[in-house]
Amino acid sequence: GAVVSQHPSRVICKSGTSVKIECRSLDFQATTMFWYRQFPKQSLMLMATSNEGSKATYEQGVEKDKFLINHASLTLSTLTVTSAHPEDSSFYICSARGQRNTGELFFGEGSRLTVL
Amino acid sequence: AQTVTQSQPEMSVQEAETVTLSCTYDTSESNYYLFWYKQPPSRQMILVIRQEAYKQQNATENRFSVNFQKAAKSFSLKISDSQLGDTAMYFCAFLNRDDKIIFGKGTRLHILP
Known about the structure:
The complex is a heterodimer of chains A (about 120) and B (about 110). Chain A is mainly beta. Chain A is about 0% helix and about 55% strand. Chain B is an all-beta fold and about 110 residues long. Chain B has no helices and twelve strands.
């Protein structure tokens, strides 16, 4: 199956700093990627849809200026958490749709962000 | 609004037993995809099985099979001959016409030795 790689897997930062998380599709081109947030023992919450070459589409309640998404190429989307605060600590997961229109999503390994 | 409901927050079964995880969903669409994803302790999301709504035949992948009841909007997952490695969080998911996947709250499954 298709491979999606996410980096870093774990990051710890100080409050007020910005953190960038990368999501790469390794063996296919992904025009659309999705970013999710997952709180402990909860489901995945869709944050935004990242579209190559255009602005991301954010879900209701997600701060665009807090969570900057860039999809500059067909294989890379980045999520930048700006001016991070402890409440931004969470598990962030990206996914990409495969080229075949089967609806299947391929997920990255996830990134655990801890803001001190 | 489209919703996915998993009514069993947590389940435990003995190794080698069969277990069924329930899932219901609500939609007015006639064609869509349904999925079961597994999230083990590593937290990597893994696709278990996929069902296309226009196909009446229930999908099967080795020990995993679904009971898809379109009229009842039900999509349960059966795991046969359960193994310790099946211990994970299982999410039922629905792909809507906007190309977004909606996840249920999940069922935490424990396979006991």
